[in-house]
Amino acid sequence: PGRLLGPGDHGSEQQDSGQACGQQPDGRFFGGRRAGAPGGAALGPPGSFRFGDARRKQTLIEAGVERASAIVACTSDELTNLDIGLDARELNPNIKVVLRMFDAKLAQNVSKGFNIKTVFSVSALAAPAFAAAATRTRVDYSFKLEGQLLNVSTVTFESTSPFIGKTLEQIENELQCAIIGAWSGNGIQMRPARDHVVQPGERYYVVGDLKAVRALNEGR
């Protein structure tokens, strides 16, 4: 069944049937029925743990979905997840909806109907990773944006790299990629200066197609 639940002070409970939960604007998760309470869901004190049937619209109402900022429907039944998401969006048109879907075609159709900008498929994400591994290209993460496959890669430039002495802007224009961050002693520096000249040993985070990522990694 589609259960609505939220983590309390002692973490979260995993249900065999999956789970659906939501988050209020203050960051607290909301969930269904108080222990021992007859019937539907009711909000208890912060940090308490409750669960109920998220397929019932009344459960969502009593759990506070009308003032929640987001809801996650991730049961093992995608139609149940869709039903929960539809009810939540009907009750709160501005709520952010995350659905667990198994059918890629259905997921695409649902994303359009829900006006969800990003859809991730486990199989779609895994395939590029296997392809990258087969070509021995270092890829940290792969995703699709507007149907185009993009890869995130960590690149450390060695002294023998042909890109040493070039600016980040020159590298981006040459490979049609985006250098989104640079590693420094204090962590990741986002959006490094385009006119910075690459030096040996510097580490960067790059987004691009497989060809660009391969060129950067092979040139290290």
Polypeptide structure, described:
The termini are far apart. The longest helix has 14 residues, at 78-91. It contains six helices and eleven strands. Mean pLDDT is 75; it is low at 1-20 and 22-49. The strands form three sheets. It has a five-stranded antiparallel beta sheet with strand order 7-8-11-9-10. A four-stranded mixed beta sheet has the order 3-2-5-6, with helices on one face. It has a two-stranded antiparallel ribbon with strand order 1-4. The chain has two domains: 3-117, Rossmann fold (3-Layer(aba) Sandwich); 123-218, Regulator of K+ conductance, C-terminal domain (Alpha-Beta Plaits, 2-Layer Sandwich), CATH 3.30.70.1450. By secondary structure, the protein is α+β, with helices and mostly antiparallel strands. It is elongated, with a radius of gyration of 23 Å.
pLDDT averaged residue by residue: 75
The CATH topology of the largest domain is given as Rossmann fold
* Distance separating the two termini: 52 Å
Q: Structural class, please?
A: alpha+beta
- Oligomer category: single chain
User: Any idea how many domains?
Assistant: 2
- Do you know the CATH architecture of the largest domain? 3-Layer(aba) Sandwich
Sheet with most strands: 5 strands, antiparallel
Give Rg in angstroms. Answer: 23 Å
Report the top-level CATH class of the largest domain: Alpha Beta
Which regions have little confidence, pLDDT < 50, spanning 5+ residues? 1-20, 22-49
As a percent range, the share of helical residues equals 25-40%
Keywords:
alpha+beta, Rossmann fold, 4-stranded mixed beta sheet, 28% helix, Alpha-Beta Plaits, disordered N terminus, 5-stranded antiparallel beta sheet, 220 residues
